[in-house]
């Protein structure tokens, strides 16, 4: 079940249907001077009708982020539409995006129902923003610490060993990448990593895939909430997957609670959360906000799991797609590695010595943002975006695709170019302000540091050990993404040829493993 998008049409009757005040130039008593025409008027709006909202104007065979970018030409950087009964505001430029995410981040920190269906009882059971950030970032977090580096290197090594065993037969790398990334998250959350074929691990992989496959399709229920009362196969599968996840999380949680005995030993994220819960109970800080319940803790781990696997795996897949399209990019990264003298495997400390690989990762995150519409935000109070009024409850979609392909901000935005044209100015971390692959502000990705570390280590290990090539006679993988929860590349197979000289160095590398 999917929403279809179609040709542009007609003029605006949405404001009338929404019952929003029109752009009246006068105040109530007519005594005060006219308001400025730019003073908080409603954003330009697509036509809409009762019940179906703007659906008729949204039929298109293009993916929503591409279609929303096309609408920008007609309606401007900020416009609104109706999805069923919901007022949705689409933001297409970094100027307005930063107002939503940074300047008014707290006001736009709400999330819609579909995001919340992934919680145990469909309510937003998680911490308030500040509380969650506090727990994640200060106590343990998904940061790029030595703690996280160890499982990443271990998984990169195991993945490369599996690829070496393929004997240059073309393989779909997706399952191995997913396994590797899932194991990193499992290690961080539960201190467990799994062997291939472990039934618990397989069910964990399955439920993650099930959630990714169905959440995208479930979007229609989000638009028309009354559809929930009808039998809905996708919703059934989604609920089943969520319940498998809940059982796994509960088991892990029980095990940790039993074995958790000391505040001084912190093995993983669950330990850190348990410690935060205990300390909030001891200090009775629950009176200052929402207390930490078992559900909060479980859902926080669920969030990390749900958000941390598919995203990172997808960026790795896109990186490989672009590496086989542009083999010279892989060669330049390898030349950097050779120049920096890494006879051993790359380590995190090599990041500064491999600027071309870092630029390649940045460019992949720009050209194919994994979350091209971010996650929808909801205004928790009446507010504004630029000169436009925004009512409490409005959903705000930041079209990252528009930001990352904005002709005003990027030279040849549709061209993959990790080289000169994307070079950063001295003192600048990114080549343009119109670049937010991890979002920004209170709802910024909690795993940004971990994700960047994983991308660097997995890719540098792969490129260090293998040359990636398409099987002879096969077309290059498509650069068109499949839009869903994340923007996925289509399936493809590659040959992973061991690089000449790798085997000769192997003995030294095995010795080095302990130093991860
Ligand atoms: C390359 C990989 C990743 C990318 C590109 C990415 C990107 C994003 C984006 C764009 C958002 C939404 C921001 C918004 O709605 O304003 C997000 C949210 C989130 N990400 Fe990531 N992410 C990645 C990896 C991870 C990892 C590894 C974790 C954790 C282990 C993680 C945890 C989260 C969480 C918990 C949220 C929700 C934040 C909130 O709602 O407050 N992400 N991510």
TrEMBL record:
Species: Denticeps clupeoides (denticle herring)
Pfam family name, one: p450
Membrane topology type: Peripheral membrane protein
GO biological process entries: hormone biosynthetic process; progesterone metabolic process
Residue numbers binding heme: 445
Protein's UniProt name: Uncharacterized protein
GO MF term set: heme binding; iron ion binding; steroid 17-alpha-monooxygenase activity
Gene behind this protein: CYP17A1
Family, similarity comment: Belongs to the cytochrome P450 family.
Basic and acidic residues: compositionally biased ranges: 31-42
UniProt xrefs under InterPro entries: Cyt_P450, Cyt_P450_CS, Cyt_P450_E_grp-I, Cyt_P450_sf
PANTHER family: CYTOCHROME P450, FAMILY 17, SUBFAMILY A, POLYPEPTIDE 1 (PTHR24289:SF14), STEROID 17-ALPHA-HYDROXYLASE/17,20 LYASE (PTHR24289)
Gene3D superfamilies recorded: Cytochrome P450 (1.10.630.10)
Cellular localization per UniProt: Endoplasmic reticulum membrane; Microsome membrane
GO cellular component, one term: endoplasmic reticulum membrane
Span list, region Disordered: 1-47
Keyword tags: Endoplasmic reticulum, Heme, Iron, Membrane, Metal-binding, Microsome, Monooxygenase, Oxidoreductase
Cofactor field: heme
